[in-house]
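Input record, target 12 of the design panel.
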């Protein structure tokens, strides 16, 4: 009887301990059973999301209202093109100065220029006289070697031992030939033949209300339209 009583007591104690353990408030909750595949899990109403749409939050606008457009400025009137004239030729600087004084009130800008004329005899290009004939001949050999074959060594007279390098009908051609010789290392010069004289011109930019006939009477000389590039 003692063994049976011991077994009964042991079973009762085990049941009591299991009951006490299940009734504890801090006992971990029993794991939720997973629903079989394909079957939705039951949800309480409090667990479902609220189906009502929420109003979107209105962000405070940071944009500043656009300022009203101001009327555009009146376009500037296009400036009238310049008109330029040349008066002359004047024989001397006295006549030039008198014309300048008469035309100054009619012009916004004035410029004088001088043109030299040689009386129609042409121009020459030459090398100045050397110390002796041997030096002149050596210069002539160097000129021919450089390709300048049109030359004459002057043997006597006031220009003995100089080298003539050609005559030209215009100043422009003479100076171009002299420039080519200078570039090759020769001290060539261009010079007008015969008496030279100067002629003077007065170039001007017309002012407001400029009258060409009135300008001609004031200058005592012809007044012709010209390119404004010559007056700059």
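The sequence produced for target 12 reads:
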């Amino acid at each position: 009887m003692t063994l049976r009583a011991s077994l009964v007591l042991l079973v009762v104690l085990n049941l009591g301990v299991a009951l006490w353990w299940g009734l504890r408030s801090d006992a971990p909750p029993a794991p939720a059973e997973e629903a079989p595949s394909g079957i939705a899990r039951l949800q309480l109403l409090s667990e479902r999301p609220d189906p009502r749409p929420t109003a979107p939050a209105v962000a405070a606008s940071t944009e500043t209202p656009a300022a009203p457009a101001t009327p555009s400025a009146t376009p500037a009137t296009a400036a009238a093109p310049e008109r330029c004239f040349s008066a002359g030729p004047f024989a001397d600087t006295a006549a030039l100065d008198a014309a300048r004084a008469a035309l100054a009130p009619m012009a916004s800008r004035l410029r004088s220029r001088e043109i030299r004329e040689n009386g129609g005899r042409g121009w020459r290009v030459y090398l100045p006289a050397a110390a002796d004939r041997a030096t002149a001949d050596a210069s002539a050999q160097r000129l021919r070697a450089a390709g300048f074959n049109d030359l004459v060594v002057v043997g006597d007279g006031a220009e003995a031992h100089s080298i003539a390098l050609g005559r030209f009908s215009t100043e422009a051609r003479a100076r171009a030939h002299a420039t080519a010789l200078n570039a090759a290392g020769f001290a060539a010069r261009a010079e007008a033949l015969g008496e030279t004289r100067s002629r003077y011109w007065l170039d001007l930019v017309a002012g407001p209300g400029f009258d060409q006939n009135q300008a001609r009477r004031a200058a005592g000389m012809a007044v012709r339209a010209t390119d404004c590039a010559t007056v700059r």
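Confidence is low (pLDDT under 50) at residues 56-62.
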